């Protein structure tokens, strides 16, 4: 599997959202925008049910780790979820598959990981960014680190076991850490 990147430019983040909507529809742009704000693995993001959301909190058990993720929803995420719920009041899943002819008579299922992977790869190729489903999680971690410079805080948000894993995961290199030491004089 190809290594994907954190998207470091806020303009590129917006461009990705725009291109996903333009080429694949509002639902795929919603996956990107909500995924950026929740920093969940794609399997957990796609499995979210409206019943997992109580007020301004999302509570799920992560599929990979078995750990509980209890995430407060920011205003942007709450608004996006409400818009989705208004568009699709009968849906069980936040990102429910509904376009396929087969889906109209089948039990509800979430959007497939494969569909999201394909859409993200297409947009990534278009803008020359190694974009994948993990890019949302990495991007959130990267931008949190840039705003607070507290790797422990980022590690806790991503529910990682070590700081070294988190630094590598969000794309922070020794060169960038050295630059921070040189540029910040007290």
From TrEMBL:
PROSITE patterns: TYR_RECOMBINASE. The keyword Membrane does not apply. CDD domains: INT_C_like_3 (cd01192). The keyword Mitochondrion does not apply. InterPro entries: DNA_brk_join_enz (IPR011010), Integrase-like_cat_sf (IPR013762), Integrase_catalytic (IPR002104). Keywords: DNA recombination. GO terms for molecular function: DNA binding. Pfam families: Phage_integrase. One of its GO terms (biological process) is DNA recombination. Residues 2-182 form the Tyr recombinase domain. This is Phage integrase family protein.
């Amino acid at each position: 599997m190809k290594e994907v990147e954190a998207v470091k430019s806020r303009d590129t983040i917006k461009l990705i959202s725009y291109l996903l909507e333009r080429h694949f529809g509002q639902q795929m742009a919603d996956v990107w925008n909500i995924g950026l704000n929740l920093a969940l693995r794609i399997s957990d993001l796609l499995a979210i049910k409206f019943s997992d959301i109580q007020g301004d909190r999302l509570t799920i058990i992560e599929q990979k780790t078995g750990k509980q993720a209890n995430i407060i929803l920011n205003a942007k995420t709450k608004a996006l979820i409400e818009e989705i719920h208004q568009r699709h009041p009968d849906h069980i899943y936040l990102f429910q598959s509904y376009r396929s002819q087969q889906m109209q008579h089948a039990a509800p299922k979430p959007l497939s990981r494969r569909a999201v992977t394909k859409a993200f790869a297409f947009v990534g190729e278009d803008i020359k960014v190694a974009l994948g489903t993990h890019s949302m999680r990495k991007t959130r971690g990267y931008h949190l680190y840039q705003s607070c410079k507290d790797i422990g805080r980022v590690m806790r948000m991503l529910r990682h076991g070590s700081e070294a894993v988190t630094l590598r995961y969000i794309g922070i290199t020794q060169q960038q850490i050295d630059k921070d030491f040189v540029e910040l004089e007290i």
